[in-house]
Design brief:
Layout: H1 12-19, H2 24-31, H3 35-41, H4 44-56, E1 63-69, E2 72-77, E3 84-85, E4 87-88, E5 107-112, E6 115-119, E7 125-129, E8 134-138, E9 153-159, E10 164-170, H5 173-178, E11 184-188, E12 193-196, E13 205-206, E14 213-215, E15 218-226, E16 237-246, E17 251-255, E18 264-269, E19 272-278, E20 284-290, E21 294-301, E22 309-315, E23 321-326, E24 342-345, E25 350-353, E26 356-357, E27 364-369
Parallel strand pairs: 3-26
Antiparallel strand pairs: 1-2, 1-27, 2-4, 5-6, 6-7, 7-8, 9-10, 10-11, 11-12, 13-15, 14-15, 15-16, 16-17, 18-19, 19-20, 20-21, 22-23, 23-24, 24-25
């Protein structure tokens, strides 16, 4: 970079240190100003440095929530306690009209390092980074089901041991019985291929419609175990557990929730797997999984919405818990319901609705970290 009169020349290391603190939108603009900057900002070293810097501070402006709203995706800054406004994201693909296909909708299947895995009904899966406006269509071993009631279960995450992003897909239980399809398979972005996961039990059914929760290279889902159906009766639920899949080892693991027999939803707190369980008396207990100590109770929530399942999203800077609600498969009804966001104060045991301006009918909320990671560059460095 040529030094102009009246300008102070900065060392490249200092420039890089400053730039790693800026949002991707600014860095993309700066690429056009200087060829050397464009070269630096495109290297895997800088992209990794920028991502690590963003993840160091969970309260910065590059931490967002992605809201799914039928055929719209919106974004909000989730660390704004007093209220915020949702902004529409420019989705890169066209999709069917809601009026023609009322039961079809786009769905975010996971978020990791700035990449979103999104299913587009009647079309495909994509990996998309809305911060840099890059996406990649994924090949499919068999088509996606268009009806959201019969969609497969998914998980998306990063395997640091191979620098690879992976998608896990479980066939809908109806498909497993009626069609010759693998019950579970995994996609590698590096190889751009799918392979079957042989060790998956075909009798496993997922309790809710939430995608897998990623913690430390392992994806987790709520799972149900059914007994043999009796004549004329539905099979009984005989057990609940948490199913994990290690992305590095390609192996399943199982663990029981803190309170056996109680339904729960999964999330993350402080980088640990968290569980919210409905208990007797209408209270909700929250635990986090410590690698050494096991389940540690974080708080007891009183007065939460009794019907939908509470989904913890994140802990705010002032210690409040940001939550939303989802409906368990037992309570599914046709149509969409507007999700509510609430802030729970564990000190005062009070709820306060978070006002979100411009938000459409939201069916899903996924934490998202802005980054420079490209879905088209993995495996090329």
């Amino acid at each position: 970079m040529k030094k102009q009169k009246g300008m102070v020349e900065l060392h490249e290391e200092l420039v890089i240190e400053i730039m790693t603190r800026l949002p991707p939108k600014s860095l993309i603009r700066f690429r056009c100003l200087c060829k050397s900057w464009k070269a630096i900002f495109s290297t895997s070293v800088f992209i990794r440095m920028h991502l690590n810097r963003v993840k160091e501070n969970q309260y910065n402006d590059m931490q967002h929530l992605i809201l799914t709203s039928a055929y719209r995706l919106q974004s909000i800054k989730h660390q704004v306690c007093g209220g915020t406004t949702a902004s529409d994201l420019d989705f890169p693909l066209k999709y069917p009209l809601l009026k023609r296909f009322p039961n079809h909708r786009i769905k975010v299947l996971g978020s990791c390092n700035g990449l979103l895995c999104v299913s587009v009904p009647r079309k495909t899966l994509i990996l998309w980074n809305p911060s840099i406006k890059e996406f990649k269509k994924l090949p499919l071993s068999y088509p996606l089901h268009s009806d959201m009631q019969l969609q497969d279960s998914f998980g998306f995450g990063y395997d640091p041991s191979t620098n690879d992003y992976k998608v896990v897909r479980f066939a809908n239980r109806y498909k497993r019985v009626n069609f010759p399809r693998p019950p579970a398979e995994i996609y590698s972005l590096k190889s751009n291929t799918w392979k079957s996961i042989q060790s998956f039990s075909v009798s496993t059914v997922f309790e809710d419609s939430l995608p897998g929760t990623l913690v430390g290279g392992v994806l987790y889902w709520n799972a149900l175990c059914f007994g043999k159906p009796r004549q004329g009766l539905l099979p009984l639920v005989t057990g609940r557990w948490i199913l994990g899949f290690d992305l590095a080892l390609d192996k399943f693991e199982t663990l029981f929730p803190p309170k056996k027999g109680y339904a729960c939803t999964l999330g993350t707190i402080g980088g640990c797997l968290s569980v919210a369980q409905k208990l007797e008396g209408g209270s909700i207990g929250m635990w986090k999984l410590d690698p050494q100590q096991g389940w540690i109770k974080v708080m007891t929530i009183m007065g939460a919405n009794p019907l939908p399942y509470l989904v913890p999203i994140c802990v705010m800077k002032k210690g409040q818990l940001l939550i939303t609600y989802t409906e368990n498969w037992l309570y599914k009804v046709k149509g969409f319901k507007t999700s509510e966001f609430e802030l729970y104060d564990p000190v005062k045991s009070t709820f306060r609705k978070l006002q979100v301006g411009g938000m459409r009918k939201c069916t899903q909320a996924i934490p998202y970290t802005q980054s420079l990671v490209s879905p088209n560059a993995i495996g090329l460095d």
